[in-house]
C-alpha cells in the first residue's frame, strides 16, 4: 500500500512508541518495589525494636519494728539506753543468682549491658554518680510527738551492704546524729557477719522543742565494726527534718552514699587490667601511687598493696606487693595473674587495698578500690574498658576510698 509522505509527516514511528512503553513499565515496577521495601523496613524495624524492650520491677520489703528506746534528756545530753521488750526474730533476705544458659549467652549479656551503661549513654544522664556506688540502702522511720516534745527515730534494716571484711562480709552498725550537733551520737547494736541486717531499734530524743527539731538534719552513718582497728565507713544518709511531715511516723528507704572523709585525700593508685578471654585470666599490674596519706608519726608511710579476688562476696585468692619504706609516692610495677572463667565475670570483684606496714601494731588501711562491672563510675569504666579491649593492658588512675 502506498503512503503519502506528506500525510505521515509528524506521526511517531513504531520504534519510538515501543521504547516509550518500555520506559513507562519500568518506572511503574520501580515505584512498586520501593513501596514494598519501605513497608518491609518498617515492619522489621518495629519487630526489632519490640524485641529489645524489657520490663523489670524492683523488689521491696517491709521491716518489723522492735522497740528499744534510747532517751535524749532536755539539755542535749545523751542518756543511757533503756530497753523495752519487743520481738527480735527476723527473716533474712534471700539472694538469688541470675540463671545462665551458656557462656555465649553470658558474653552477649555482658556486651549489651556494657553498651547500655557506657559513658554518655541515656542511662547515665540525670543520675547521681554516688547512687551507682552500690553501697546498699537503709530503711528508717521518723516522727514527732507534740504532747511529749519527743522526736522518735527507728532504725529498721539495711539491704545489700558491701563486704568490708576479707571474709566476704561485714559487721554493720548505725550512728545517729542530729546535725549540726556532732558531739552527741546514738548507736545501734552491731550485727555480726551480715550484709542484710535487721536492727528494729527505736531512739527517743526527749524534751526537744519542735521549733528546734525542724532546724536539725537527721544524719545516719553505717559503719563496719572492727575490733582491732578503726571502724570502716560503709555509707551515709542525711535528711533535713524541715522537709519531713513529722505529725506521723514516716518510713523511708534511702540509698547509702559514700561517707565524706574529713581527713582529706587518701591518695591515688595507678593500675592496669588485662583480660585474656582465651586463657580465662586477668592480669592486674600495680604500677605506682601518688600523694598517699601519711599514717606514721614521722609524716610518712610504709605502703604496700594487697589484691583480693572475690567471687560472690567470698574471697578466692590474695596477692600482695613488696613494702616501700617511708614513701608517699611509691613505684611498684608488680603484676599478678588471676584465673577467672568468663561465666564468673559478672559476680567477680577485685579489691585493691593500699596498706601501711607497721612492725609494732596492726597494719593500717590507707585506702581501697573495688573493681567490678557494678562498682562506682570510675571503677566500672575501667572494668568495661578491660573487657572491650581484650589482651590489652588498660591503665587508669583511681582515687583511694575509705
UniProtKB/TrEMBL annotation:
The lineage of its organism: Eukaryota, Metazoa, Chordata, Craniata, Vertebrata. GO terms for biological process: calcium ion regulated lysosome exocytosis; plasma membrane repair; positive regulation of transport; regulation of calcium ion-dependent exocytosis; regulation of endocytosis; regulation of insulin secretion. The gene is SYT7. SMART domains: C2. It is found in: Cytoplasmic vesicle, Phagosome membrane; Cytoplasmic vesicle, Secretory vesicle, Synaptic vesicle membrane; Lysosome membrane; Peroxisome membrane. The chain crosses the membrane at residues 16-40. GO terms for molecular function: calcium-dependent phospholipid binding; calmodulin binding; metal ion binding; SNARE binding. InterPro entries: C2_dom, C2_domain_sf, C2A_Synaptotagmin-7, C2B_Synaptotagmin-7, Synaptotagmin. Keywords: Calcium, Calmodulin-binding, Cell membrane, Cell projection, Cytoplasmic vesicle, Exocytosis, Lipoprotein, Lysosome, Membrane, Metal-binding, Palmitate, Peroxisome, Phosphoprotein, Repeat, Synapse, Transmembrane, Transmembrane helix. This is Synaptotagmin-7. The keyword Cell membrane applies. It comes from Anolis carolinensis. Residues 89-99 have a biased composition (Basic and acidic residues). Its main location: membrane. Belongs to the synaptotagmin family. Residues 134-254, 265-398 form the C2 domain. Pfam families: C2 (PF00168).
Amino acid at each position: 500500500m502506498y503512503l503519502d509522505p506528506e500525510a505521515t509527516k509528524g506521526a511517531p514511528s513504531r520504534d519510538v512508541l515501543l521504547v516509550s512503553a518500555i520506559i513507562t513499565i519500568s518506572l511503574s515496577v520501580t515505584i512498586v518495589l520501593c513501596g514494598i521495601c519501605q513497608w518491609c523496613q518498617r515492619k522489621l524495624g518495629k519487630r526489632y525494636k519490640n524485641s529489645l524492650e524489657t520490663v523489670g520491677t524492683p523488689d521491696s520489703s517491709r521491716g518489723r519494728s522492735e522497740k528499744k528506746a534510747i532517751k535524749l534528756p532536755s539539755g542535749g545530753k545523751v542518756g543511757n539506753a533503756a530497753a523495752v521488750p519487743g520481738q527480735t526474730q527476723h527473716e533474712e533476705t534471700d539472694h538469688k543468682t541470675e540463671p545462665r544458659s551458656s557462656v555465649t549467652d553470658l558474653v552477649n549479656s555482658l556486651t549489651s549491658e556494657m553498651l547500655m551503661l557506657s559513658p554518655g549513654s541515656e542511662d547515665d544522664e540525670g543520675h547521681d554518680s554516688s547512687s551507682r556506688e552500690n553501697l546498699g540502702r537503709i530503711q528508717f522511720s521518723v516522727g514527732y510527738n507534740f504532747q511529749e516534745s519527743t522526736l522518735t527515730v527507728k532504725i529498721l534494716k539495711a539491704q545489700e551492704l558491701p563486704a568490708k571484711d576479707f571474709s566476704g562480709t561485714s559487721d554493720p552498725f548505725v550512728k545517729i546524729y542530729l546535725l549540726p550537733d556532732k558531739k552527741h551520737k546514738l548507736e545501734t547494736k552491731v550485727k555480726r557477719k551480715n550484709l542484710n541486717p535487721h536492727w528494729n531499734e527505736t531512739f527517743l530524743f526527749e524534751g526537744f522543742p519542735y521549733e528546734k527539731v525542724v532546724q536539725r538534719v537527721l544524719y545516719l552513718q553505717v559503719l563496719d565494726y572492727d575490733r582491732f582497728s578503726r571502724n570502716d565507713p560503709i555509707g551515709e544518709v542525711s535528711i533535713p527534718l524541715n522537709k519531713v511531715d513529722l505529725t506521723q511516723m514516716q518510713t523511708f528507704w534511702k540509698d547509702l552514699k559514700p561517707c565524706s572523709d574529713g581527713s582529706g585525700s587518701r591518695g591515688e593508685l595507678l593500675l592496669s587490667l588485662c583480660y585474656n578471654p582465651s586463657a580465662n585470666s586477668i592480669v592486674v599490674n600495680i604500677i605506682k601511687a601518688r600523694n598517699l596519706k601519711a599514717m606514721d608519726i614521722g609524716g610518712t608511710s610504709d605502703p604496700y598493696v594487697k589484691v583480693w579476688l572475690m567471687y560472690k562476696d567470698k574471697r578466692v585468692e590474695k596477692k600482695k606487693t613488696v613494702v616501700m619504706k617511708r614513701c608517699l609516692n611509691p613505684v611498684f610495677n608488680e603484676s599478678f595473674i588471676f584465673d577467672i572463667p568468663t561465666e564468673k565475670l559478672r559476680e567477680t570483684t577485685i579489691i585493691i587495698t593500699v596498706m601501711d606496714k607497721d612492725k609494732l601494731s596492726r597494719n593500717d588501711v590507707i585506702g581501697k578500690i573495688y573493681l567490678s562491672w557494678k562498682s562506682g563510675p570510675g571503677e566500672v569504666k575501667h572494668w568495661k574498658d578491660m573487657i572491650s579491649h581484650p589482651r590489652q593492658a588498660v591503665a587508669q588512675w583511681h582515687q583511694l576510698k575509705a
